[in-house]
Amino acid sequence: MSHWPVGKVVDGHGLVPPEPFELTMATLAAIKPGESVLLLLPREPHPLFQVLDRQGFLHHTQATPEGNYEIRIWRAE
Question: CB burial class (10 A; 0-12, 13-18, 19+) of residue 66?
Answer without folding.
Answer: exposed
